[in-house]
Amino acid sequence: MAYRGASSTNQELYHHMSAAKVKEHFPAEFDSFFKFSIMRNPFSKVVSLFWHRHREDVALSKADFSTVRDTFNQWIAKNGVGPRDRYIYEIDGEYVVDYFIMYEDLLEGVKSVCEKVNVPFEQDNLGSFKSGYHGQVKPYQDYFDDNSKAAVEAYFSKEIEKFSYSFD
After folding, report:
1. Do 97 and 33 touch, CB atoms closer than 8 A?
2. Which one in 45, 47, 136, 149 has a CA-CA gap of 20 to 30 Å to 130?
3. Mean pLDDT by 10 residues, the chain (168 residues)
4. Measuring CA to CA, which residue among 47, 42, 44 is closest to residue 75?
5. CA nearest 143: which of 34, 52, 67?
6. Are 2 and 13 in contact (CB under 8 A)?
């Protein structure tokens, strides 16, 4: 049985399962599967993770943006820029997915995957999970100071290079 969520407790298949575990479960079929993943600009991803981790902080979501920015940069200095999610689309450092949906063009990417697997694209059936976490909507560039920007560039250098992401 499959499970939607981060917990793998007593579940064979689950949300955000590593590519290696999927291959473990389906060794004969893995190479023939059409595998896709979503890739997001790392700077945007880190801002989103910040708000996800602070989703219960009502005061922060209503604070002056200078306070939000300071909190964001202190959070990165203390905790780093968050977990890499390469385990979802890599095995032993190699990409194993056939297609990346670019988060910045999500609907077109989902539509393309539907076409590739011969499934009707029905936009009205798509959910909007996690859409309420952003406490303040500002361009991601506004959140970063030089140190936090450098931390993201170093931590996600592989993704930035492969997908031609930039801070601007």
Report:
1. no
2. 149
3. 53 87 95 94 93 91 95 95 86 94 93 94 74 72 97 94 94
4. 47
5. 67
6. yes
